[in-house]
From TrEMBL:
It comes from Roseibium denhamense. Residues 348-459 form the Mannose-6-phosphate isomerase type II C-terminal domain. Residues 5-283 form the Nucleotidyl transferase domain. This is mannose-1-phosphate guanylyltransferase. The keyword Ribonucleoprotein does not apply. Belongs to the mannose-6-phosphate isomerase type 2 family. SUPFAM superfamilies: Nucleotide-diphospho-sugar transferases, RmlC-like cupins.
Length: 461
């Protein structure tokens, strides 16, 4: 059995302002209403694979759960990383989990932020590599290059026609001249960061080449515990793990590294210009997401989160408009979006971290407006879900039901509210909301008071 392990960490800062720390690029529904995370999960919904092991940030736990539920996928396990770490620790954790379930297990390690359009070609490459992995080799998948791209690492593969061939060298991201030379010489592929290996082979490789890291990860896994649908890891032990990639930790040290070259029409979508490349375009090369209009413009990208975006008389320009931020940039400067994000981080701007929509165990909230002593947000409560019993020291709240029927409890008094009905929650009152119905409840909440941050919550059981 192949256990797919989907790595859903990362921030995707070059896709700001849509991608943020609390809702990064792999969770953005940019492709037919689905996210890259969801597409990755569906890619391995195949008889040869188990349910996926998902490893991601503790901050994204409800987002991962929500998106898995939307596509009807049940995870084999969801491991929550307390802080961000590179790919080596997750590769070993996945091997340990799979080995516990099946001593002969194979693991397919997949980033969650890649777009693969020829999924049948990719899956066939994985199936063709099974025998090599069962034989103890660690297989990396190399993408047949279509251009001298300097944003990827390269792998030099032994000459031949076999579906899996020995790795001769791993090469760092090259400059343009070297990348052009690689394509002219042949035998080089892009390093996609996708691996297939037996759980036992990866465990043995860590014991041999990274014994300290092996012991540290084993300690983390021994202390794991279940919390609802998630597996939590000890924050102190996890923070001590080396922040190192699987390439540096293992692949460049072992003698049994092999590569499966494949051309599945692949992109890692690391910038807005890359997004433009893969989207459908009009006759003038323009791509619009949301309510976008183009006039006398060519090769532009416009993303409209809520409001209409019109692009007039421009060429090769990107306009990304969310409810609280707007990015305008030339496509040639797409990589520099990260520099803007770094500046905003230095200034302590919340737009880097916080998306207007925040996912909760019971649904989500979405910020509408805020000012001095007030905040307005919409709330969606999923059927059967209930908020914790709580009170606030510094704010009062007013709820207006937009759709559905909700049970409200204020200081022990419970009653039902339906569309266009409202309730007032005085400062200090104990209150909760419960959706007893079969459809989502949507509410507009108005908060007013001297302090409106999320940490003004006292929970009462």
């Amino acid at each position: 059995m192949i256990f797919p392990c989907i790595l859903s960490g990362g921030i995707g800062s070059r896709l700001w302002p849509l991608s943020r720390k609390d809702r990064p690029k792999q969770f953005l529904p940019l492709f037919g209403g689905e996210s890259l995370f969801q597409k990755t999960c569906k890619r391995v919904a195949h008889p040869s694979f188990s349910n996926p092991i998902v490893i991601g940030s503790n901050n994204h736990r409800f987002l991962m759960g929500e998106q898995l539920a939307e596509i009807g996928t049940e995870a084999e396990a969801i491991l929550l990383e307390p802080i961000g770490r590179n790919t080596a620790p997750p590769a070993l954790m996945a091997a340990m989990l799979a080995y516990e379930k099946d001593k002969d297990a194979l693991v397919l390690l997949l980033p969650s932020d890649h777009l693969i359009r020829k999924e049948d070609v990719f899956l066939q490459a994985v199936l063709n590599a099974q025998d090599a992995a069962k034989g103890g080799a660690i297989v990396t998948f190399g993408i047949t290059p279509t251009e001298p791209n300097t944003g990827y690492g390269y792998i030099k593969v032994a000459v031949g026609t076999e579906p899996v061939r020995p790795v001769e060298a791993f090469v760092e991201k090259p400059d343009l001249a070297r990348a052009e030379a690689f394509l002219a010489e042949g035998g080089y592929v892009w390093n996609a960061g996708i691996f297939l290996y037996s759980a036992k082979a990866m465990i043995d490789a860590f014991k041999t080449h990274q014994p300290d890291l092996f012991d540290a990860v084993a300690g983390v896994m021994e202390g794991r515990h279940q919390d609802l649908d998630f597996i939590r890891l000890d924050e102190e032990k996890f923070s001590d793990l080396a922040n190192i990639s699987i390439d540096y930790a293992i692949m460049e040290k072992i003698s049994n590294a092999v590569c499966a070259p494949v051309a599945p029409d692949w992109d890692d979508l690391g910038s807005w210009s890359a997004i433009w490349d893969v989207l459908d375009k009009d006759a003038d090369g323009n791509s619009g997401l949301g309510d976008a209009r183009f006039l006398d413009s060519t090769n532009c990208l416009a993303y409209a989160d809520r409001n209409l975006v019109s692009v007039i008389g421009l060429d090769d320009v990107m306009v990304i408009a969310t409810s609280d931020s707007v990015l305008v940039a030339h496509k040639d400067k797409a990589q520099d979006v990260k520099k803007v994000v770094e500046q905003l981080e230095d200034e302590g701007r919340s737009e880097v971290d916080v998306h207007p929509r925040l996912y909760k165990p019971w649904g989500y909230t979405e910020r509408i407006n805020a000012g001095d002593r007030f905040s307005v947000q919409s709330m969606m409560i999923k059927p059967g879900k209930k908020l914790s019993l709580q009170s606030h020291l510094h704010r009062a709240e007013h709820w207006v039901v937009v759709s559905g029927t909700v049970e409200i409890t204020i200081n022990g008094d419970a009653r039902l509210l339906t569309e266009n009905q409202s309730a007032y929650v005085p400062l200090g009152a104990q209150h909760t909301l419960h959706n007893p119905g079969k459809i989502p409840v949507r509410i507009i909440e108005v908060q007013s008071g001297t302090y409106l941050n999320e940490d003004d919550i006292l929970r009462h059981g």
